[in-house]
Amino acid sequence: MGLGLKLPTIYNVHLVAIIATLGGALFGFDISSMSAIVVTDQYLTYFNNPHDIIQGAIGSALAAGSVVGSAIAGPLSDKIGRRDSIFFACFFWLIGTSVQVACKNYGQLIAGRVLNGFTVGITSSQVPVYLAEIAKAEKRGSLVIIQQLAIEFGILIMYFIGYGCASIEGPASFRTAWGIQFIPCFFLMVGLPFLPRSPRWLAKVGRDQEAIAVLANIQADGNVDDPRVVAEWEEIVTVMNAEREAGKGWRKFVKNGMWKRTMAGMTVQAWQQLAGANVIVYYLTYIAQMAGLTGNVAMVTSGIQYAVFIIFTGVMWLFIDKTGRRTLLVYGALGMAFCHFVVGGVMGAHHDNVPDGVGGNANIVISVHKGAPANTVILFSYLLIVVYALTLAPVCWIYAAEVWSLGTRATGMSMAAMSNWVFNFALGMFTPPAFVNITWKLFIIFGVLCVTAAVWFWLFYPETCGKTLEEIEILFGDQGPKPWKTKKGESRLTAEIEAVKARKTVEHEIEVHEHEKV
C-alpha cells in the first residue's frame, strides 16, 4: 500500500478469501439496502412513491456505476495489482454511502448508488481474479465460491437491518440502514494490507522472486523447492512467455482462438443475469404482496429466501470441486426455466387486476388468488432461488474467472463483469415497468431465456473443473476437444509434479555420484 512499515502477511488461503470477499459483502449490502426498504411507508412517502421508470432507475443505478467500475478494473488491476485495486475501490464506497445517507431526493440517491456501484464493479471483477490466482487448481472453485457466499451474507444481514430499521419513524429509517454500509468497507480496508499480492500478477510485472516466495508460502509452507511450487512456477513462466509473444492491445482477446475464451467469459456472466433470478432476489417483496402477503409476513417471507440462498450455496461449497462446471450450468438453467414457467403459468391463470396497485404500491398491479395459487407462486420462487444458489449463482463467477489466460485475466474478468452489469442494469430498468405492463408474462420470458442458456452452455463451454489456469489454454485452443467431450479433473499438473520429483531425484543422484568421485 506504499506504507513504510512492514505488515505481517496472511498466507492461509481461506482466511485470505474471507477478507478479500468482504468486497462481495459490499455488493450484497447494496442489493438489499433497497429490497427491504422499497416497500416501507417511510421510503414511499419521502421519495413520493417512486414507481415504473423512476424506481427502475433507482434500482439499476448500482449496476450503472458497476459497468464503469468493471470497465476500468482490468487496466487498473494490471497496473497496481489485484489487491491494491480493491483497496482503491473502497474510497468510492465511502463517498457513495455518504451521499445516500445525506440524500434529499431520488436524484441524489441515484448518484450515491452509482458511486457505490463503481466500487462493486471493481471488487466483483477483481476479487474472483485474485482468488483464482492464489488458489490450488483442485480447490479453486471452493475458494471463489466464498465470494458468492459473502454476497449472500451481505444481502441477508442488510435485509434484516433494513427490516429492523423499518420500525424507526421518518427518513431516519432508511438513512440508518444505508449508513451501516460503512462497516463492511471499514473491515475490508483494514484487512487488505495484510494479504499477499497475487503471485501471477507479481510474475507478470517481473517481480519473480516475490512471486515464487508467495507461491511457496501459499502452496508449501514457504518451501521454494517443493515439487508443486516448481511445477506451477514453470507453467506460469511458459504461459507468460507465450502471451508476451502474442502482443499487446485488444487483438489478444480475439487472436489465436482467444475469441472463444472472450465469448465464454462474457456470455456466462450475461446468462447469469438473463436467467432472471435477480428479479426474485431484488423484488421478492413485490411477489409476496402479489401473493397476498402483507406487512411483517411479507418482509419475513422475503428474508427467509435470503437465508435459503446462503444455505444452498454453502452446500455447494462442499461439492463445487467434485462436480463439473458444465453439468451445473446446463441442469441449473433447465431447473430455473421450470420454476419460471410454473410461477408465470400460475400467476397468469389465477390473478385479478388491481390497476391502482396492491396496497397502494403502483409497481404491483395484479393480485394472485389466495390459497393454492398464491402458495405455489411463493414455493416455486423459493425453489428457483435454491436451484440458482446451487448452480448459476456461484458457477458463473467461477467459470468467468477460470477461462482467461494470464495476460488477459484481469482485463478479461473486468469485461466479463461489465457484461454482467450491463445486463443487470438493463434488467433493473426493465423489471419494474414489466411488473406493471406485462405482469406474469415476465416469468415466461425468463423461462425461455433459461432454456436458451442451457443449450448455449452445452454447445460452447468446455469443462474447466480441476484443471490449472495454464492448461485451460489447451481447452480453448484450435486443437482442443469439443466442449461436450471434455471432462473434469484430468489435470496435467499432477504429472508435472511427478516429473519435477523425478528430475530432482536424478539431480540428487548425480550430485551424490560426483561427490563420491571426489
Keywords:
2 strands, mainly alpha, 22 helices, two-stranded antiparallel sheet, globular, Growth Hormone, Chain: A, 518 residues
Task: Walk me through what this model shows.
InterPro entries: MFS_dom (IPR020846), MFS_sugar_transport-like (IPR005828), MFS_Sugar_Transporters (IPR050360), MFS_trans_sf (IPR036259), Sugar/inositol_transpt (IPR003663), Sugar_transporter_CS (IPR005829). This is Sugar transporter. The chain crosses the membrane at residues 12-33, 53-73, 85-102, 144-164, 176-195, 270-291, 303-320, 327-349, 377-400, 412-430, 442-461. Residues 16-465 form the Major facilitator superfamily (MFS) profile domain. This protein is mainly alpha-helical and 518 residues long. The protein contains 22 helices and 2 strands. It has one domain (13-204, 251-475): MFS general substrate transporter like domains (Growth Hormone, Chain: A, Up-down Bundle), CATH 1.20.1250.20. Helix 13 runs parallel beside helix 19 and helix 16 packs antiparallel against helix 20. The longest helix is centred in the first third of the chain and has 29 residues, at 52-80. The relative contact order is 0.14. The mean pLDDT is 84.
